[in-house]
Amino acid sequence: MVGEPCSSGNAPEQSIVGETLNLAARLQGVAGPGEIIISEATRRLCGGMFEYEQRGDIVLKGFPETVTIYRLLGEGSAQSRFDARPMSGLNPFVGREQELDALLARWSAARAGSGQIVHVSGEPGIGKSRLALALVERLGSEPAGIVKWNCAAHLANRALHPMVRDIETRAGFSRGLSAEARRAAIDALVAASPTLLAEDAGFLNDLLGIETETRPELDAAARARRIYGVLARWLAGMARDMPILILVEDAHWADAATLDFLTMLIDRIAPLPALLLVTHRPEFTPPWTHARQAATIALDPLDAAAGALLLAAVVRDHVLPPSMVHTILRKAGGVPLFVEELARTVPDAVPDLRRSLDSFETLTIPATLQDSLMARLDQLGQVKELAQIGSVIGREFTAATLRAIAPDHPDIEGGLRRLCDSGLARERRENDAVEITFHHALIQDAAYESLLKKRRRDLHRAVAEAMLAQDPAFTLAEPEVIARHCSRGGLAEPAVSHWLAAGLHALDRAANAPADTYLRSALDDLQDLPPSTERSRTELAVQMALAPAAMAIHGWAAKERSRRRVHALMNSRCNSMIPGACSARPGVYGQITSCAAKWIWPLRRRSRSTRWRRGRGRKCYSWPPIMRSDSRSITAAIWLRRSGGRSRAPRASTRTPSEKSFGCFNSPRRRRCMPSRLRRFG
User: For the residues of 430-453, what is the DSSP string, one character each?
Assistant: First the structure.
């Protein structure tokens, strides 16, 4: 349907043309007084929400084929519109019977007390999640605990995000819940577990980012190990009452901390009545290859017979000619998701498949899933805009988040109902909140890629501004999510600050790989800021935070540009800390000394050949080569700042412990190490 603004005073509908308007006008003419007449496509979308009476096939002016019409009788018996969606329900489980039998055999062994591990590998859309769901359905008739940990692509650098989401769901968290109520919910969760102690609540609060009065006095690595232990004991407590199925979906998107925890859990799963089922894509290599009780199930494309059964289930009462079936199966390549999405475009493209036999040979089937999904999105009309906005927000979104970004949209709730009814998304109720989730990540990608770059940037900017303004719809947004929207929306300054916050948060949990990713993203966004003192100060903070993460990943010998950049920034900062400049810019001195105290000074190490000073019996320490020049410059600047530019260091009685430990160039031999630009003040 196409329309244009009309300035001649004519009615708006006179300037709108298209098949939809023509069909509505013809059906209006057919309907009697007080009747509601709908087409086959509308009846298929409404499903069981209403009761209908078929009026047969009629010939309408402007349509080459007859149109089947229905009279609406009243409301149906379905309790919700989702119970009435025949096209969005689960299709029959076909072609995976052997794989399901293998999973059931592993479950039997796990139920007997021998922990099992199974990997289900396959390309996107091959049916990994459907196989896992079939297993869950088979276990519904027996006592079993189900733990679902879903990994998400947009949270791939968020430490332990699948476990955090699961705990929040079990504790009944909602968006408006206060910190006190969250702590009470965690306390109740701990009290209900037979294997957790009261002190474990503090580690769970720390994992979920809940503010507490006291925090465990441990370093990041030790705190992470304690959190892993709490989660493992929690699972062991569940396994005391009944066997448990631990389902880890999309492990290829798991963060490093999640993989570390799973590796530790696998070492403890052998004596538990538990089955760990991990789904992932073929390019993912599990780090726990040493596990003896692990097995792998690789899913292959469906054969022609199974694909035909699935196709028949999707089109339901429509009968496709063999040529159309062959074309769909050939283009789908045996991928169940492709079969479903391609098949769903056929009834929308041809209203009457039973009588349009000649159109099958000329009907154009989308050559790729992207085209198929875009064809379905285009059929939604104005709802497509909501799907596009939702794709920018993320895999999951709500009506409130859409309203915050598009406040002028006339019917957000109605549009979301149509989006869910089309099968492109599904509704999930969680703690009295309704979330809309794209049915598949590829659907979100298709909607996202359909946006023009300028429109995409504007939407990211709108989302970022709403998050920065602390809109109630985005109250639980993580710093890396805010940074991503700011970065893609062209807001470089807040993007850098939130990337830095996310990196420091990851470092605090010993998640070095995510911290490296976040901090390097901050450096990329820094390039969009004009040169200034504040930019150099921020870059120094980012580089100093990046140093421990890079060294933990790559080692001391790695040739990192960041280290050379830190050296240049340190020299620049030391120049600014000369007496006179320090009094005008005291903030720089405080920042440099705090950064040095936090990251550089603790990194001193004993040299390979430990030397003894003759006659004193004291060991001589040296800086690592990559940090030696920086340490001298910083120490010299600190000494000059505290001494007011005196040529000699303070006497031993007035020297601070840090000055004693680092020498402060208080001897002629050590003063030779002082840079010439600082020695001239002596």
Answer: ETTEEEEEESSHHHHHHHHHTS-H
Does residue 229 have a pLDDT over 80? yes
Coil, strand or helix at 328: helix
Backbone φ, ψ for residue 275 (5° rounding)? -120, 120
**Neighbour-count burial for 184-215, b at 16+ CB within 10 Å, e otherwise:** ebbeebbeebebbeeebbbbbbbbbebeeeee
**CB distance 235 to 246 below 8 Å:** yes
The 10s digit of each residue's pLDDT in 23-57 is: 888 888 888 888 899 988 788 767 666 788 888 88
Contact 202, 212 (CB under 8 A): yes
Which tokens sit at 478? 């993580």
DSSP state string for 641-670: HHHTT-SSPPPGGG--HHHHHH-TT-SHHH
Pairing of the two strands 425-430 and 433-438: antiparallel
For the record, the structure tokens of 682 come out as 């002596």
* Domain residue extents for the chain: 2-75, 97-298, 304-365
Q: State how far the Cα of 559 lies from the Cα of 544, in Å rounded to an integer.
A: 16
- On whether the CB atoms of residues 625 and 631 are closer than 8 A, the answer is no
Q: How many Å apart are CA 369 and CA 375, to the nearest integer? A: 10
Instruction: Please tell me the distance from the alpha carbon of residue 539 to that of residue 535, in angstroms, as a whole number.
Output: 6
Residue 195 is predicted with a pLDDT of 92
CATH fold label, 97-298: Rossmann fold (3.40.50)
CATH number of this structure's domain 2-75, picked from the four choices 3.10.150.10, 3.30.70.1230, 3.40.50.300, 1.10.287.3510: 3.30.70.1230
Question: What secondary structure, in 3-state letters, does 470-505 show?
Answer: CCHHHCCCCHHHHHHHHHHCCCHHHHHHHHHHHHHH
* Alpha-carbon distances, residue 414 vs 57, 74, 382, 410, 632 (angstroms): 30, 20, 11, 9, 67
Distance CA 157, CA 257 (A): 9
